[in-house]
Amino acid sequence: MYSYQNSDERVPVLQMNSELEHAQMELVSASCAVHQLRLHYSSDDLARFGRRDVLRKSAEAATALHEFYAAIEKKIPVGEESNSPYQPTLDEVAQATNWLATYLQQQRDHYFSIDVPLSSQMKALMWPQFSHELLDLVRVIELQGARVPAPEFFADVRALGFDPPEVTHMDSVTFVDVIAFNQRLSDRALFHALIHAVQVQLLGVQRYAELWVKGFIRTRTHFTVPLEVHAFTLASKFLRPMTEKFSVEDQVRRWISDGRY
Hints:
Number of strands: 4
Low-confidence stretches: 1-7
Helix content: 55-70%
Distance between the termini: 32 Å
Strand order of the largest sheet: 1-2-4-3
Strand content: 5-15%
Structural class: mainly alpha
């Protein structure tokens, strides 16, 4: 529970939490990248053949981050959060899934009449990671000062003790095959949003919503929902210098086959 002595305090606190969530997003992305290293290489191989300067800088950064957050964790009041978070019933999970699927479809229909296709330049940048068929299908809209509205059912989600994502502060939101950008369209935001379009295309809206809800209930944080983790991971891979060519569709199919969502 937060309180503010005056309205001037609220803005800095909201800004702080927005920056905190952004930092968490970057940490999740880094954690996913490190997990891929663990899957492919042993610690012995990394120590023997890895670039010494990169390894040392990475270790120093990880240590500094651990010390920073550990010091903060010690100051969090004991008992402020419940040790036994509420677990929704099967009926509540099904209801939340229907809420989300309906919201995605309704917003898709709402924006479809005013959005535009991807430009040739955007398509060229995103290919071959995404198929021509998907790039021709997807449409985008920059809201230019407006914001994607948070769904009304978020009030019910909060009542159950969950903290839903801040939709109005996201770079973009994917509504099936329509992507709405709260802020300026960027390469990274577009790539991330297109991954969700692929996930929806392969899973279907209802199954995508179900997996998102179940992942959120399990991890209780937007950034750690497996569907989001995969999007962050692939977007980070795309932004690396000398980006290797890969198929997002193949990557998503593999995660679906392996049951990782």
